[in-house]
Fold:
Amino acid sequence: MFPARLFPTIETVAHTFFTLTANGILPHHAIETVIRLLSGFALAAVFGVGIGILMGRSRLAEDIFLPLVSICAPIPGLAYTPLFLLWFGLGSFSSILLVGFVSAFPIIFNSWTGVKAVKEIWVRSAHSMGADDRRMFTHVILPGALPYILTGLRLGLAQAWRVLVAVEMLAAVPWGLGWLIFGARKFLNTDAMLAGIVVIAIIGLLLEKLVFQKIENFTVVRWGMVAA
Amino acid sequence: MVPIAIDNVTLEYDTPAGKVTGVKDVSFDIGASEFVCIVGPSGCGKSTLLNVIAGFLAPAAGEIRIAGKTITGHGMDRGVVFQDFAQLFPWRTALGNVSFGLEMKGVAKDERDRIAREQLRLVKLEKFVDSFPHHLSGGMQQRVAIARALAYNPSVLLMDEPFAALDAMTRDDMQTLLADVWRETRKTVIYVTHNVAEAVYLADRVIVMSAHPGTVQADIRIDLPRPRDPLSVEFLECQKQLMRHLGHKVSGNGAAH
Structure:
C-alpha cells in the first residue's frame, strides 16, 4: 500500500536528516538558500516599503503604481521564472531578483494601506506641534503605519520562500534546498526530499519566532497598537 | 498675553447636495489670559470654528488674528487638545508625547525632558512619565494631551470637548485640574463644550452659538469668584441663565442638562 521508497518512515527521514547535517551537505544547501532568501527579501523590503509608502503619500504615485501592482501581483511567481532566467541568466542572481520582485507585492499593498490608515488626529496633532514634512514622515507616518508594514513583511517573506524554493528547482543552481529536493527526486531519495522540507519549515519557524515576533513585541505590541 | 480677534468668519462645507454654511458671520474678541467657552447644540459649528482657529480649516470669508497677525494655517502659537483619546502617539511614552513639540522646535534632549517632566507634574502624572498611552486611563491620557499641548509654550490653548468622553466623576476631577493648570499658566483658552455646567465652572466668558447656520447668539460673562462651587446658588443661577439662552425650558430650581 505505502512502499517505503515513496513513503519513508519518520525514523528514516530523521536518520537522513542527521547524516546529511553531520556531513555538512544539508547546512550547505540551507545556507545558500537562506542567503538568496534574505538578499531577495531585503530587495523586496526596501523597494516594497518605499513604493508602498510613496503610493500612500502621493496621489500621483498611487495613480502610476496601483494599476501596475494590481496587474502584476496576482500572477504566480513561477510564471515569471522562465522570463527572469532568460533575461538575467541561470543561477543565483536571477533567483534573487525574482524573489525580490515577487515578494515585493504584499509588502507594497500593506505599506500603502498602512499609510492610509494612519489616524488623521495624529497628523493634526503633529502639525499643530510644528512637525515639518520630513519629521511628519519619520516620527508619525512610519510608526503609525508599522503594524501594517510588519504584516506586509511577514507575507512578503512567506511569498519569498514559496518562489525561491520553486526557482531553485529550475535555475540550475549548484546548491540550495529547492535544488536538493528537486535533485533527490531523480534518485527516488524521498527521505532526502522530506529532510529538505523539514529544514525549510525549521528556518521559517526560526525567522518567525526570532525575528518577526521579537520585532513585534518590541514595537507594535509594546505600544498597544496590536494585541499581544 | 495674546488677544485674539475672530472677524466675520464664515465657513462652508462641500456636500453632495451643494454648499452648506456651517458657520456664518461669527465675530468676537478674546482677551489675554481669558478662558472662553463656546457652547451650543450639536451642529452649531462650534468644533468647526475651533478647527478654523487651529488653522486646520480655512474660512470661506472673514479672518482670525492672533496678536494682530492673520492666521493662515496651523502654528506653534496654538496648542490643541482633541476629544479623542487616540490623539496621543501610541509609540511614544507620556514623556515622549509631551516632548514632541519641543523636539520639533529643536530643543536639546535634556532640556525637553526637563520641561516635559515639569508639564507632567502640572497635570499630576509625574509617576507615569515612562508609561505608554495604552497603559493609561482615559482621564490620564487627556491629561497627557493637555501637558503635551502646553509643553512648547503656545500662547493659546484650543480645546475641543476634551472631557466629553470621560465618566462624570473623572470629568469633575479633570475640570478642577484644568482650572488649576489655567490659574498657574495663564494661557488664553478657547474651550468648546456642550456641557453647560462645565462652561460655567471653567469660563470667564461663554459664547453661546445657535445652529443652522452657526452664529453667535449670546456672549455672557461669568463673574463668579474662583474656585467655583458648582452647588452654590449663584452657580446654578448662571447655569439657568445660560440654558435659557440655549432655548431650554428652565423650571424652578433644576440644573438639568
Notes: The two ends of chain A are 46 Å apart (CA to CA). The first helix of chain A runs from residue 10 to 22. Chain A has one domain: 10-218.
